[in-house]
Write a sequence for this structure.
C-alpha cells in the first residue's frame, strides 16, 4: 500500500465536511418548527456543500492532470443559475 498524497487527504477532508453539512441540514430539517426555518437550513448547507464538493473535484482533477482544472466550476455555475 502506498501512503496517501496530500491531494487525496484534502479531497477526503472536503468531502467529509460536505457530508457533515448534509447531516446538519437533515437534523435542522427535522427539528426546526417553522416551514421557512426548515427550508433555510438545508438551502444554506446545500450551497456550501456544493462548493465543498466542487473544490474537492478541482483538487482531485488538478492533481491528476498536473495543472489547474477549473472545468468543474461550470457545474456549480449551473447549480447557482437553476436553484430557486
Amino acid at each position: 500500500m502506498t501512503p496517501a498524497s496530500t491531494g487525496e487527504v484534502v479531497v477526503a477532508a472536503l468531502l467529509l465536511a460536505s457530508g457533515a453539512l448534509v447531516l446538519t441540514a437533515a437534523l435542522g430539517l427535522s427539528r426546526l418548527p417553522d416551514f421557512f426555518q426548515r427550508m433555510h437550513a438545508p438551502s444554506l448547507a446545500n450551497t456550501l456543500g456544493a462548493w465543498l464538493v466542487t473544490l474537492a473535484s478541482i483538487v482531485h482533477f488538478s492533481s491528476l492532470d498536473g495543472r489547474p482544472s477549473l472545468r468543474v466550476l461550470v457545474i456549480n455555475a449551473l447549480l447557482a443559475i437553476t436553484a430557486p
Q: What stands out?
A: The mean pLDDT is 85. Helices lie at 6-31, 35-65, 73-82. The two ends are 45 Å apart (CA to CA). The CA atoms of residues 17 and 52 lie 7 Å apart.
